[in-house]
Amino acid sequence: MGDSMKEVVEKLDPVARRLIPPNIDLGTLVPLKTNLELRDNLSLGFAYITRAPNKVTNSVVEIARALTSDDTAKNLPHLRRCVKPGDLPPHLKTQFMNEGNGRQVHFGKSNWLYILLGPKDEIPYEELVSRLATIDDIRDDIFVGVIPVPLLAPTSQMLASMWSSQFWQTIYRRNNPLGPHPSTITRFENYVSKDASVWMSLAQQIAKKSQKAGLGEPVGAVIIKRTIPGKNAGGKTVMKPGMIESDSSSDYTRTGPNGCNLDVQGGRGEMDAIPSAETEYYGDAKQLDADGSNPEAQGDDASKQDISVKESTEIVAIAADARWHQQDGTSGPTGNPMAHAALRAISMVAQKLVRAEDRPKSEPQIMEYETFQDKPLLGDEQIVFDADHPSPDGYLCHELELYMTHEPCIMCAMAILHSRMGRIVFRHRMPLTGGMCAEDRGYDSCEASGLCENGNCGGGQGLGLFYRKELNWSLLGWEWESNDAEHMLVDAHLHA
Ligand SMILES: [Zn+2]
């Protein structure tokens, strides 16, 4: 064990220290990619634009709003509503200057603006023209142009600048609309990387013990609570299961007094005041904090917060796979799915929370067959189970950290999401059955096993469940790669 690891071990909570194996193999963290990040970054669509004197832009914007659907994302909130003729990309400037009253618009004394109306697919053209004709100042020369625009928000200022010169003025909102912000990943990775090897070694150890005892497959899970200085440590957020996205108006975000926002490249005021895409996405301030919609401001916040909070970790649950426990061979080839390691570990956290609330115990039910194998079965599980929950408030696994020997199956991945877990680290990818990774994979992995009738069962679907917009919760995820640690081999078709 190296000196830095010795230091980490010395700082562990007593329960964890009691369980750790003598040798801890080191590994490195590789952040998971989201489905959106793996998709083509530049997806283009077409948008209608028009031009009008400054004084009537409000009326034009109202018409545009009335004609587009309410869908925030479709309304292109990353593109400026109004652009001065001089700020058009050069090729558009040249083109539009020579159309209709272009000369007057570009060189005349009155102030005209180009206005983005919305996606071409969303707006009926005839309707648009007839409504624009109701505005006196443009009635005689209605201009409607169609331009290609990027449909997704940019992920950096550099990209926004590039798109501004290629397509239309584009706003970078300092968030990553395709996944967790890189600075957030880095910030947490600095903490997680210090001791990830310790927790992974515990997950591997319990996995092997379970296999040896004939309880289950060599799959293990460890849940810890990590306290980070400067981060809200209270955990007072009351989670509302079934939360829906707050429906912030995107038009508000890019609209000034006359229906336009003209501050080029987005002033600070705008950036701070607007609900960012991530606010809309989570509807949860705590998670927003964790995902850093505004990482620069976050640094300031951190320094203002209670710095007396010490960086620490505490183990909350450890559980191995127990799918073969109490199985008499009639349960089929997959064993008991309720006894997957992740489900057992989450359930143990729940039991600790109930214990802390000091609820009167219900009469133990006597059942011949226990479906939820969520009582400790191994010595290590019992030791962690007996220790009290370090902070028994907040929703189930809110902001806790999960370590697994294998990428969890789709069922467990959803359970992890529902438990509001904050971060996940796993070692072995399960290309055919895993629910966390976003890559389509494993198309060639089952041929060798000879288990598939056709010699190939098609590969995994790359659901990327750790970060999906439609699921209303997301976590940070890493794979843990190690050349030293023993491989925990399982069948490619196993649902971990
Ligand atoms: Zn599972």
UniProtKB/TrEMBL annotation:
Spell out the protein name for this chain.
Uncharacterized protein
Q: Which organism is it from?
A: Hypoxylon rubiginosum
